[in-house]
Amino acid sequence: MASIRSPKFILAFVAGFALLVILNHNGGNINIDLASGTSNETDTSNLPYKFEKNGRCQGDERHRCIPPLHVFEKRFRAAPKYKINVCAIEKNLSTIMTAIMCFLFDEKKFSDKNRNLNEEMFHQRFCRTRNEATSIDHLERKFKTNATDWLHLAIVREPIERFVSGFVDKCVIEQVWIENGKLCNMCRKNITCFAERQYKRMVIHSNGGKLNNFDDRHFFPQSWRCDFSAHFRRFTFLQYKNEHTEPFLQTLYTHLESRNVSNSTIEIINKQLHDGKTRHATVGLSERDIYERQVRSDPYILQYIIWMYYYDFVLFGFPLPEVPAQKVQIKIV
Ligand SMILES: *[C@@H]1O[C@H](CO)[C@@H](O)[C@H](O)[C@H]1NC(C)=O
Ligand SMILES: *[C@@H]1O[C@H](CO)[C@@H](O)[C@H](O)[C@H]1NC(C)=O
Ligand SMILES: *[C@@H]1O[C@H](CO)[C@@H](O)[C@H](O)[C@H]1NC(C)=O
Ligand SMILES: *[C@@H]1O[C@H](CO)[C@@H](O)[C@H](O)[C@H]1NC(C)=O
Ligand SMILES: *[C@@H]1O[C@H](CO)[C@@H](O)[C@H](O)[C@H]1NC(C)=O
Ligand SMILES: *[C@@H]1O[C@H](CO)[C@@H](O)[C@H](O)[C@H]1NC(C)=O
């Protein structure tokens, strides 16, 4: 973690502030240029989409919205041979990506040991920290490289889906609050209560409070991760959606090919990922649907979602949710 006085923290703060100012002054006609007045590392000019006018988090509402690009947890997995660096934010994907990157880090050893990517996902013993870095600077030092011509991939998730999925996995299915009453913000299975309290934790963190618990790591904004505050411009974003693992993997393979990862290596990865038991729990599916419908039909929860994740929607190119004028009764069929 960067300390409050560290240049990164200050940069993140300045960048966030500049972004807010720019957004506000354009009156919703968003044209983010983080570079102006901050750092040349942090602008969004390489984003593949245009920002749409949406009216949220401007004017009076601006102060309610959690600012982007704070410094929070970050960890990278590198394959120096291919100059690929991956930051995976979401837990499960991070497990898959850790296995893939470990394989690319040391293909030969991995194969010699008859290691299986799928097993590796659950027993991450092989690469350990050998291919990890905690910042881009660390990556450059550790692998004696210049990260300028690396491919930096960040895997990002639709904010509502991420929020609901995380909540349902931890608080509804696993019920981690049974063991530790403080988890799930002491809300048990109440997602409204959870959103309110998680929002408050973000406000505290934005104001310099030192928070970092289990809930925070799962629910704090994605724009706070991956060293984005300093290196946003360098990243290529891969969007991940539930039940769309295949298109995600295909896109990933295209990126690997662009770095000259051989087809046979990609085939090994693909085969291994599909060989193992299906790791994607289907148990949670209907629960997830129910909670997602509840969230999307409830203007009160959606308001908190937008306040928490506005900049995740904007920076990573996900459309803001439609907010119904009043709570819609959901029918569970
Ligand atoms: C950013 O780039 C501009 C022009 O390319 C340069 O004048 C300026 O000094 C750079 N700023 C920083 C902080 O590197
Ligand atoms: C890395 O490479 C870029 C572009 O080639 C160059 O501008 C930069 O100074 C290099 N950085 C270091 C630390 O050598
Ligand atoms: C859930 O939490 C909200 C907000 O804290 C509260 O108003 C509501 O009564 C709770 N619902 C249940 C079923 O406990
Ligand atoms: C991939 O291989 C081609 C042909 O050998 C080469 O021109 C290109 O620079 C390589 N790309 C990378 C990223 O190594
Ligand atoms: C690898 O696969 C891609 C698409 O499947 C194909 O276009 C490419 O020619 C293949 N490259 C080699 C070296 O076989
Ligand atoms: C993540 O993994 C856990 C445990 O393996 C599983 O219960 C959960 O459903 C998974 N979540 C997603 C979104 O795939």
From TrEMBL:
Biological process annotations from GO: chondroitin sulfate proteoglycan biosynthetic process; positive regulation of response to oxidative stress
GO cellular component entries: membrane
Keyword vocabulary terms for this entry: Signal
GO molecular function, one term: chondroitin 4-sulfotransferase activity
Signal sequence, start to end: 1-28
Superkingdom in the source lineage: Eukaryota
Protein name: Carbohydrate sulfotransferase
Organism of this sequence: Panagrellus redivivus (Microworm)
